[in-house]
Design goal:
Shape: globular
Distance between the termini: 47 Å
CATH architecture of the largest domain: 3-Layer(bba) Sandwich
Radius of gyration: 21 Å
Number of helices: 15
Helix content: 25-40%
Number of strands: 20
Number of domains: 2
Strand content: 15-25%
CATH superfamily of the largest domain: FAD/NAD(P)-binding domain
Largest sheet: 5 strands, parallel
Bound molecules: flavin-adenine dinucleotide
CATH topology of the largest domain: FAD/NAD(P)-binding domain
Oligomer: single chain
Strand order of the largest sheet: 8-4-3-12-20
Length: 449
């Protein structure tokens, strides 16, 4: 692999501790995926100066390849978050949805956002809110004294001070993990060879990562889908996809491979429908719900003769390996043993999903500010799906065998739990009543500084 060039830093002098004699309250978010963007927006709304540091040239991380929102329990979680005052990012995913209220195997009332347009809309929103963005900037270490982070060290050599920090660096990569626990670097959207790999900030603070496992005890999980260039599919598949948002094509018997079920991260798609059929969703590209697929085999299927992959480029052999790093944390999203480090998204649990990243991000951002101003931290009660998700996943992950669990509102165990506890609903009045009865309506809109 070629050596990466370290670029000159343009950021050296732009961050002040004081402005007009006033000490600035600074929250620094490391990692600009869905979780980091939500955390930044939430901290900004609470009144802090906020910086987002992202190693790549664009925001949204894995959010650039997904697209599915509001399917199954994600609908409930999104609406709860909006009622709490965290609506900005759901406004964007809703606005850029190519399809709404789509049903497909195992999933109801899904929206599918256009992955080609959502990132620029989020970047614009974040800038509009006065959040400082540092892209092409990779955090490589911390300056920590007595369990308190003083500053971050950047790859380019600079040091950035802050009051609270939020680790939303995700759980995917770096490249050596994809070699060790997958089929090699599949050249995914995270582009580690170009921008440098993920760095676990919590681990740099001396807090060991929790690592997810598959059924056979291998570390990590394969990401579960591939972006296909839609125009390389036959015209009739394109048309069906554009009008319905979903296409289901039965596979010939010899192509059915049930072994793929056990390696997939997305337990909500680990069902026989996804083994016996090709399921495509319209995200602007055609999203093929399989972790990888040899291209010569795919091209044997009618309508796929000219198919090409968009992401990962090497989806014929593999996909990104996730759940390689989660920080132990409490129900306020504060990382254990570091007094001013918070976390959200995949970094805060063996989570799957944009919605999961966004709802935990809003909570982490709010509590990062509460920490600075000495206010009681916010705990979302278990009478809500967000509160139950945060605390249930936290306690389950710490148990024996917890490293093999995955959590998503969209299906599998956690969605079943939502239904058992009567937490799943798409009824607007019931949801409003739920959040109001806990006196939490618009809590994220309150200025804390
Ligand atoms: C192929 C695929 C399809 C998916 N489809 C869906 C879907 O349809 N619906 C859904 O809900 N979910 C989907 N998911 C899952 C979802 O995308 C993720 O769970 C979610 O986006 C994770 O967000 P995050 O912010 O926690 O992490 P990430 O998106 O991983 O973001 C972490 C960010 O941190 C940055 N970073 C890491 N280290 C550093 C550092 N040291 N310095 C600076 N920056 C750093 C990274 O560059 C990255 O941008 C999909 C995932 C994949 C891979």
């Amino acid at each position: 692999m070629g050596q990466r060039k370290i670029q000159y830093s343009f950021y050296k002098d732009i961050f002040h501790d004081y402005e007009g004699g006033r000490k600035l309250t600074k929250v620094i978010v490391i990692g600009g995926g869905w979780a980091g963007c939500a955390a930044a927006i939430s901290a900004r709304k609470a009144g802090a100066e906020v910086i987002v540091i992202e190693r790549m040239d664009i925001l949204l991380g894995l959010g650039n390849v997904g697209g599915l929102t509001r399917n199954n329990g994600r609908y409930t979680a999104a609406e709860e978050c909006i009622l709490l005052g965290g609506k900005e990012l759901f406004d964007i995913t809703d606005r850029y949805s190519r399809h709404k209220n789509v049903d497909f195997p195992g999933h109801k009332h899904a929206s599918i956002y256009d992955v080609n347009f959502v990132e620029s809309a989020v970047t614009e929103k974040v800038k509009q809110m006065g959040i400082e963005l540092m892209t092409n900037t990779r955090v490589t270490n911390v300056v920590i004294t007595n369990n308190h982070i003083e500053a971050l060290k950047l790859e380019k050599g600079d040091i950035i001070k802050g009051d609270s920090f939020i680790d939303t660096t995700g759980s995917t990569g770096p490249v050596n993990n994809c070699y060790k626990y997958g089929n090699g670097c599949a050249m995914c959207i995270l582009r580690c060879p170009a921008y440098g790999g993920r760095v676990s900030i919590s681990e740099k603070c001396g807090v060991p990562d929790m690592i997810g496992k598959r059924k056979d005890d291998t570390f990590g999980s394969f990401s579960g889908s591939i972006k296909i260039k839609k125009e390389t599919l036959s015209k009739d598949i394109q048309e069906e996809l554009n009008s319905n948002g979903v296409v289901v094509i039965p596979l010939p018997k010899e192509e059915v491979n049930s072994r793929k079920l056990d390696i997939k991260i997305c337990r909500q798609y680990a069902t026989k429908e996804y083994v016996e059929n090709i399921v495509l969703l319209d995200t602007g590209h055609a999203k093929l719900m399989a972790p990888f697929y040899p291209i010569h085999k795919l091209r044997k299927i009618k309508g796929f003769e000219k198919v090409r992959f968009e992401d990962p480029y090497a989806a014929g052999i593999g996909n990104s390996i996730r759940h390689m790093s989660a920080a132990p944390r409490d129900d306020y999203m504060k990382v254990d043993n570091v007094d001013n480090l918070f976390t959200a998204g995949e970094k805060s649990g063996f989570y799957i999903g944009h919605t999961e990243a966004i709802v935990t991000g809003y909570l982490a951002g709010n509590n990062a500010v509460r920490h600075i101003v000495g206010r009681d931290k916010l705990r979302i009660p278990s009478s809500t799906v967000i509160g139950d998700f945060v605390s249930h996943s936290n306690s389950e992950m710490r148990k024996d065998g917890g490293d093999k669990k995955k959590f998503t509102f969209a299906g599998a165990d956690y969605f079943e739990r939502m239904m058992e506890l009567d937490l799943y609903t798409i009824n607007a009045d019931a949801l409003r009543k739920r959040i109001k009865s806990e006196d939490l309506l618009n809590i994220y809109n309150e200025k804390l500084i």
